[in-house]
Amino acid sequence: MKNGVLEQLAQFACEWIPEKAAFAVAADGHYIHLDERGLDIPLVPGHPVIPGDIAHRVLETGRRAEERLSFPEQDSSYYGIGYPVEIDSLPGAVIVLLPEELKTEKTEPIRYLTGRTDEDWVPVSVSRITHIESADKKTWFYADGEEFASARTLKQLEAELPGSFLRVHRSYLINTDFISRIRKDDFTSGLLITTSDGSEIPVSQTHAPTLRKVLGF
């Protein structure tokens, strides 16, 4: 793994990961980095990723995963959260390992999103939302051909919505249940999604590998 990627991950760890949490990085079927940060984690770089474990699930699906972890060599247990990343053009996974006492209570995905249209506030079932857009520092979501303004940011919604919603661009989240077609964009050579309501959503190069992995193409 290039030093530049390691430096970025180290910066990420300092800013986001709790001090008493370790993190590991996996790619190409094995672990390539471990920062124990004071914990005793029985993993070493070069250790293979075991089929079925959290790193394997992230690498296979390209999606965030969570699970309780225990190691036969220890009495301690950890709460693992895995995030998909791209490392030297290969799918990778960052696994954050938190001692059980640091784990926060997992919340269920939201079922309704309340949006504003004219002077009314309208609760909308997330199962009806085709896509969500960020534009001009505002967030808009679309359902049944209508447009609604939301007080939440895309980043907040990405964490709160169920797994059918996928980030495909810095400005778009899409409900994969409403994807009708995916084709190459003649102007950008990237991908373009057409939803069931006829909307066209661009897919950035950063998020294209995850979309391909999730939808299997």
TrEMBL record:
Organism whose genome encodes this protein: Bhargavaea ginsengi
Occurrences of domain HTH LytTR-type (ranges): 113-217
One annotated GO molecular function: DNA binding
SMART domains: LytTR
UniProt-listed InterPro entries: LytR-like, LytTR_DNA-bd_dom
Gene3D superfamilies, A to Z: 2.20.25.10, 2.40.50.40
UniProt keywords, alphabetically: DNA-binding
PANTHER family: TRANSCRIPTIONAL REGULATOR, TRANSCRIPTIONAL REGULATOR-RELATED
Protein name: LytTr DNA-binding domain-containing protein
Keyword DNA-binding set for record: yes
